[in-house]
What does this fold into?
Amino acid sequence: MGQDLKSQTRRTYDTVAASYARMVPDTLYEAPLDLAMIDYFVAQLSTNASILDAGCGAGRMLAHLTALSPSLRLQGVDLSPAMVAQARTTHPGLKIVVGELADLDYPAAEFDGVLAWYSVIHTPPHEIEAVLSELRRVLRPGGVLLAGFQSGTGERSSTRAYGHEVDLRAFLHRVEDVAGAAEALGFRIVARLERAPRESERHPQGFVLAER
Ligand SMILES: C[S@@+](CC[C@H](N)C(=O)[O-])C[C@H]1O[C@@H](n2cnc3c(N)ncnc32)[C@H](O)[C@@H]1O
It folds into this structure.
């Protein structure tokens, strides 16, 4: 991620962190199909698997994963220190750190699973391979990655989000591009899904589940 884009993304999420945590506290916005992908991701793993929530934001998916399977060993990482602070408040027992998807501070093969839930949406398509490569590095052989994102092509800019003035860019990714990049890196695609937008959404949603 270029430095300007990284700073802009971090600044925006630092600005909105408390509001995001309050306004999006759970998975109420997720469609049943989205949650089914997460269920299936968790079902691929042992009950005490180690999972990295990569781009964990304020930590709502850490809560969701815990609710699904309480013995999972969870960690979180996010670009935004304020989002990390929110996540640490709700999950004081978990290791949640500031970091960048494309340059993670973990040893190779550290995790059984990596969840990248709407965190690659700020990565331009030409950088997605570098992110997937880094997520692959931290997965053990046989480990699984689940990525969720708005699907399509192009970019959108926001000047207002979660009640704040922001300057945020987000990128659409085609499911076949994400799956193709993952395959080229040596992942085996377990499932890929594109679902139609619901009423509140402007874009289809894409999901790729892949095994290292
Ligand atoms: C839309 S939020 C989703 C947060 C969380 N996964 C959820 O579902 O609530 C996107 C998150 O990805 C993080 N993020 C974006 N680009 C990132 C990067 N390159 N490295 C780490 N985190 C990133 C942002 O800071 C933000 O917290």
